[in-house]
Amino acid sequence: MMLKNDLLLRAARGEVVERAPVWLMRQAGRILPEYRATRAKAKNFVEFVKNPELASEVTIQPVDILGVDAAIIFSDILVIPEAMGLPYEMIEAKGPRFQNTIQTKADIDKLKIADAGDLDYVMKALTLTKKELNGRVPLIGFCGAPWTILAYMVEGSGSKTFSKAKQFLYTQPVLAHALLDKITQSSINYLKGQVTAGADLLQIFDSWAGVLNEKMYYEFSLQYISKICTALSPLVPVTIFAKDAHYAIKKISETSCASIGLDWTIDPLKARQEAGKKTLQGNADPCLLYSDEKTIISETHAMLEAFGIDRYICNLGHGLYPDIDKEKVKLFVQVVKEYKW
Length: 341
Ligand code: 1CP
Description:
Blueprint: H1 7-13, H2 33-39, H3 45-49, H4 52-65, E1 71-72, H5 79-84, E2 88-91, E3 95-98, H6 105-110, H7 120-133, E4 139-144, H8 146-155, H9 163-171, H10 173-196, E5 201-206, H11 214-232, E6 238-242, H12 249-253, E7 259-261, H13 268-275, E8 279-284, H14 293-307, E9 312-316, H15 326-338
Parallel strand pairs: 1-4, 4-5, 5-6, 6-7, 7-8, 8-9
Antiparallel strand pairs: 2-3
Bound molecules: coproporphyrinogen I.
Coproporphyrinogen I binds near residues 26, 90 and 207.
């Protein structure tokens, strides 16, 4: 189906655009009362993610309410560990918990390499969303980067330091690579399925890139992300978002990704120098949206000015926080859409 608004895809491919496309990480989420109402219909978070009708509903909400230029399928990166045989729970106000974690070779051997069929509920949610969107905006699919997924599978929960997961890399590098390989293969199968089901662009979230040093980042994370990009880039544009890995932008630009997601700790001009011809995405601090309207407008203008119209996708540097005022989010989107280039 022809897209009525394909700004995101044109920007990702480096084509001419009339203005920068804008979407927000965690645009489907607790900032919207409508999201909270839909979420209340499910028994818990995991059941919510597994319900294609509810997932599709909250995927489309930000397109209607915030006016963003893309929808991102409502799911979670943790569906991959589950599909491989490691189920999780989402504890309210605490985050994810895994009853079993990965420690030994036997644990890794027991894991299955997931295929798209194991995540049929995500495929159904994508198909349904694509139909409901009716070509209004592109639909983004996603997965976690293998390192970030390993971090949760070994740690068993979120963490500030992921020291157990890092201990695993330092003490069991051979096992770590075996696990990363299995996650990579599962992710490629999963993302190929997402493209078949209607995803127009894919984003790989490496949320915990920043806890690794540069050398370990290339060894344990980027080489696997690169494999995923090589497998998927011939099909759709791929964005790599490696949070806090500013040192890695040049190396990331050497993969076959179309665009690079940036957090707010990197200067747009510096990122441009390092990223070559790749499209850049980001990078407003979500906390900017706690400030007054005047500040939001002037800071957003400065950011647009710094990135420029070419090869740019406007976004935040990480996900929206649940207590950010929805009206401020709407203002941010509106400022980007009305900017005179
Ligand atoms: O009901 C709720 O509001 C719970 C909060 C929530 C939401 C809205 C979680 C729990 N997951 C999601 C959806 C989600 N997760 C999306 C939906 C699409 C959108 O962005 O609108 C996406 C893309 C994710 C991806 C995700 N899950 C990441 C990568 C992005 C990031 O934020 O860095 C990570 C790290 C997760 C794990 C996760 N899921 C949820 C929480 C609270 C966490 C973080 C746990 C931790 O602190 O480690």
